[in-house]
Amino acid sequence: MGVRLMVVDDHRLLAEALASALKLRGHRVLAAAAPSAGAADLVVSRAPEVCLLGTATPAEPGVFDPIVRIKRDRPQVAVVVLGPVPSPLGIAAAFAAGASGYVRHNERIEGVERAMMKARAGEAAVDPQLLQGAFTELLNPAAQPDDEGARLLQLLTPREVEVLVRVAEGEDTRLIAAGMGIAPSTARTHVQRVLMKLGVGSRLEAAALAARTGLLDRAAAGSAPLPPQRG
Known about the structure:
- This protein has about 230 residues and is an alpha/beta fold.
- Strand 3 (about 50-55), helix 3 (about 65-75) and strand 4 (about 80-85) form a beta-alpha-beta unit.
- The longest helix has 15 residues, at about 185-200.
- The chain has helices at about 10-25, 40-45, 65-75, 90-95, 110-120, 130-140, 150-155, 160-170, 175-180, 185-200, 205-215, 215-220, and strands spanning about 5-10, 30-35, 50-55, 80-85, 100-105, 125.
């Protein structure tokens, strides 16, 4: 028995091509639409058994809001998302919004049809390999790039980090020199190197940058006091 369905996708040609293919396989397509807004209203008004909802940006905030509306007003409508392989959080977001399935956008028509039938029957329609990939990524997350604070901290020597902390605390060159046991001329040189490496033009800018990026917190957590040096 054919499925009474709707195809909603931001790309009209994709929506119409998928709708035509499904019609040829005996399904009743109520509409193939590409609304920039109002997708939920359209589905709620037509009340299909299944809605195929295409998206090119599953990770974008709010992309699954139409599903929330559909499931609130037409809980009997099963929504199957068609999209690229997202991050695990993308898949989770689709199901959290109320989707019954998630299918790769390059899936064969037979795969889409199987997902529709499972969703209509109240089953979760997700390719096991897709789930396996999501779980693998969750269990073995890729290393995240360092944030700006960590990057800036790597530019500075331990001595320059201490100088930056003292600058942020408002110490002038004389106090920095006395606190570190170095000559004022050496302290002045350290300060200039810190400003140059951070790409700022003043001590105030350096202090503001360090506070904004969390550099000071990282420095406080990761370094022990250095012994005074002469010179």
